[in-house]
Amino acid sequence: MDYLDKLVECQHIESEINKIEEGLRGSDVRKKLLHARNYIVNVQNNYKKTETDLTELHAALEDITHRYEANRSRAEAEGIHYSAADEESDLADVQDMQREAQQISSAFARNEQDLQALIKRLAGIDQEMKKMAANLPKARQDYTRLKAIYDKDLAEVMAKTEPLKKKLAEVQAGIPETLLSRYQEARRHANNPLVPLDGNRCSGCHMELASAGLTKLKNQGIAECENCGRLIFIQN
Ligand SMILES: [Zn+2]
Fold first, then answer.
1. What is the dotted CATH code of the domain comprising 3-175?
2. How far is the CA of 172 from the centre of ligand 1 (A)?
3. Is-above-0.70 flag for pTM?
């Protein structure tokens, strides 16, 4: 079968292309480039999150201020109440005043606690933002430098693969469309979609072919493996 040689050649060229491209896909430069890019994206996301946090903290600060004002008015009113106390005041009045004073005092204390917690969070955010701002220029520099190296590597890879891809297109043009699409379908599942028969087994997955498959293979020169979907051929 003439087409078989062409399919074998397709697979050979494609694996050559793969080998060349794989080197770049798994290269250190690409890993570092992705790392630098992820870092920058991460910082940008953190900035956005920080903005949201700051809006929340601003609202919390306003709330604390309102509570403080309300409490201060309450303390002032209670002060007037105190100065109005005289010999007419009985024990119940004094106990009332004491209770009120205690409530005001603990409200001030809670406010103070909330304010301290807010200051602590703000300090944390400030530190985080300073750290990000300090590291970002270096990350951007790294990214630009690595991108230049990667682009150069990519150009080299393309210079090698382009003639191969051209050759591949030429070979593919000589293969009937139905056969080629069967091959390409098999290629979606395996890097070596075309394998020789080994005894009566598929040499891709080592599964034995059913007798119907073997007959078809002998008649047509090519058959699909029912187990792995590869195209099997008989090697001369
Ligand atoms: Zn198989």
1. 1.10.287.1490
2. 23
3. no
